[in-house]
Model the fold of this input.
Amino acid sequence: MKIGAWISRLSQLRHVESLLRAAALKGHQTCLYLDQSLAGGPKDRQTPRRSTLPARIADLAECVTESHPAEPDLIGFRPEVLVATYAPGLRPRRMGCPTAFVQGAFTDLMDWADPADWDRMFTWTPAWSGWWSQWRQWRGIPSPDSLIPVGMPQADLLPVPLENGRRVVLLPFPTSLVPVWARPGSWQRELALMRTLRAFCDRANARLIVKTRDKTPLTPRARALADAVVEDGADPDLLWLLSGDTVLVHFCSTGVAEAAAAGVPSRCLVPPRYMWRPYVHRARRLAEFSPWSKNSFYNWHPVVQADSVGATVKVLETAETWEDWVPRLHPFRLARYRERFIGLPPYRAGERMLAELETLAG
Done:
């Protein structure tokens, strides 16, 4: 079978890598279609190119093609089925073959994909399939039968051990809630948080690693406070840092799910409710995604604890040891979170997707 995988940004490689591995083991041919839509823009470093493709990914593919969603070039390889995640401009029904969508984030539920456009939609868990159906019902749209829970594909790639055995505070994308955080004084909040985290790391003998991105770059002062900075589009990505004695500190990032898969606790920093404009109108009827709701995607103690930046800074200032601030994961609570949001180990999303694609291609 010939499988095409449409990639619109480098960070999506981890969503399809386990599928590519499973396909290679069974002797299927695969082709990577690298979407060039972001080239030359503010997210240029996220543009997937042959020159930036990790060797482990390139070795799994029969061919690699740079393309554009407005004029996709599928003729040379002629895939029997095409998979994609968030791909603006791509028209699945015009691909000339069956298509499948792979969930990559919680926002896919509301914005990026219409199940009616795809022959299959691979969700992380039955709960996600149910929420997708609810969202469509609220909008008066019938829900199709194409929603298939397979687990979170990123989890198939874990664990990847850290080379350094020291404790790590991992902070992805400071001030990432744009435009929510793009307000006067946002950089002062970022700097105050970074200084407090730096002081805590010094007391706890931990490293502070920041994962940044081009559209919300670190200020030079904030950058100087980190032990290491992982740049936008870099490989290894965030996923590869989630192991060992680590805590993830994030601004409502989907990385919370990857952290839970890796057995890493996280702290979710949320803005005041009145600043939560981009998602209020979409998520108000789905309490499972509100960081202010208990037992939600972003607030499931002790797997992930949500609080404001100000409250977090106050607590960090009084924390003397690692244990004073980093929660100890409870096995039962962690298992319940995984079951609801990402699937339980052993993680085999790639194999499950491949089995469905084999059926779909006939």
About this structure: Confidence is low (pLDDT under 50) at residues 176-185. The longest helix spans residues 186-204. The chain has eleven helices and 13 strands. The longest strand covers residues 29-35.
